[in-house]
Amino acid sequence: MMKNIYLDVNFKANDKTSFFSKSTPGLLLLLFMFIFSTHSLSAQAVNEQSNTHTSSNCQNPTRIEGMVFIENTGKSLKGIPVLLVPQDGVSGGVQMQVTNAEGKYYFMNMAAGKYLLQIGDANLNHSKALYAVESNMFIAEIKSCDHQTKNFGYSNTSQSVIGNFVWYDFNGNGIQDEWFDANEDGKITQNIPDQNGYVDFENWEWIDLNGDGSYEGTENIGELNKAGLGNQKSANIFITGPNGYSREVEIDYLGHYIDQPTESGEYQVRLEMDAHLSAASEKMGFSGKVKIIPNFGKRILAMEEEDGPIIDCGPTKESLFAIQLSARELVRFDIDFGIRCQERPPVKEILANDIDLGEFDRSYGGLLGNILSNVLFDGNTANPKEVDFEFTDLDDVIGLLLNEKGEISLIPEMNEARKYRLTYVLREAGNPDNQKVAFVTFSLKNDQSDLSVILTSNKVELWEGDVFEYQIEISNDGALKATGVAITNYLPAGVTYLSSSVLENKSNIELSNPSFAGNKITWKAVGFPTDAKLILAVKVKSNPLNGTNVRTTTNLVEVSAAETDVNPHNNVAELVNVIHPFFIPNVITPNGDNKNDRFEIRGIETFVSNKIKIFNRFGDNVFERTAYANNWDATGQAEGTYYYELVSVDNQGGIHEFKGWVQVVKEK
């Protein structure tokens, strides 16, 4: 007869040791044996493979247990899946148990070694906004006859949350509409935990954790096996954000990931494939149990044959998301990534050697060479039917001719004399991912030309804000037609480009539209006949000055051709202009402090004459002067917005008209 045997099951939320204690030494094992023998059907089924590893010399069975609970209240969390996953070659399969009414779980009689202990907390995250205080994963080193306890606390958070799911996207549509059909019956099968909460993980399809009879909706997230892809060996999710925020996040065993940044702002979430995640994807695909399209399993098995196709695994939609976290939107649980594996045929080697075709005259229009002459495909001379070729960088070559045999030639006299290096890509026909990059080089020689350029602004007197024109005159004074002509105007920083036009082109030179790169404007002409002249106009506006100092600007124009120029000194022209300061204020404060009391237009004295009119907001003329002396102080006028018209004449008779508004602010 046993007396005074007690089993203390009182549990404290922060207890990091076992929640079992015995008051009568030596009898707890007997009690355990009694308890487990009454439930031998389920416990034995779950641990059948692992029991063979249990030492007969153990006084207590090998065991790991714990509790899932809300940390700040100690309230237990029932119906939460817990996984025990062997690591590093430890024998045995994945075990799954659902926590009981007290939030407890246990696994026992497993082989010694390393295990991943994971909480399937997707439902806690999504439907209850509860998150692991530390982590939902724990690596346990289990020794024979050892008894460990690992508790998992959860709490709400005021931090932002980024996360969701990585799964095998069988149909590649980017929508989570797959499930793992473990028994391959084409139907979603409900798995009912045994009396101890155990579920056969290999056959898991759907566990009705909350008893509502449904696996759909936010409240049921985590119940259905959605073919999640996990990787605990390396990080695959990379998150960056404000102030240098950077995190590398692992995907848990069930395919979920989570991060909790502390700041609002813009974040980028990126999925990067690696060997571990690709292996998990291939394993899921090879199973043939991810269902959307029938008979996927039969097709994928063919991929494993020797010398068969190669498997490529990758995202089925964008692998980079830009999101915004704010006080109104702290949680972004919609950043999911679908992965699919597809087959591609074995790669045949392409050996593409660079080729130098030699030097040619610019007037030469014959065959330059064949780009396939130095190419081997699968060990043999490349056949044009076996490979496709495409030039990706022509090095500004104009008039390149390429036929289906790989032969290239040029239209004569269209390119400047220099060495060219062209880039082309060779691709296997029908398998464009199998490709190689190679280079073709050749040189062109040219004749001599004599181009010159003159730059002027017709000695115009300039004030800030003025619109004026530069005139560019290009001539060919040589005996030969110039080709590949480029006219480049480097505008000074003190002006803004408005437009350009052709003022004279009697020789009908074919001139391109101007191209722009920063302050550089470029025109190109295929040919420029001898004795021809071309005049271009560039309209600009002088930019505002800082302060009252004048601005000195230098404009530069250069002309070049494919031919060598006999007199390169006249291929460049410079023009210096002085821009005078001019300033009209938009606010005055006539309060008698001698600071901004009057409507003072700086630089007005540089004009020969001027006339100003000032109107109130009703259009009434309240002030008008010829030779305005900067003396209007809004005497007799109410504060508010006034409008002015100023017409000034410079010393060359040029008329300058300014219109705008000025705000009058008076002390009340």
Automatic annotation (TrEMBL):
Domain DUF11 per the UniProt entry, residue ranges: 450-574
Lineage: Bacteria, Pseudomonadati, Bacteroidota, Cytophagia, Cytophagales
Keyword Transmembrane carried by entry: no
Superkingdom of origin: Bacteria
NCBIfam families assigned: B_ant_repeat, Bac_Flav_CTERM
InterPro entries: DUF11_rpt, OmcB-like_DUF11, T9SS_type_B
UniProt key word Signal: yes
Signal sequence, start to end: 1-45
Pfam families assigned: CHU_C, DUF11
Protein name in UniProt: DUF11 domain-containing protein
Keyword entries, A-Z: Signal
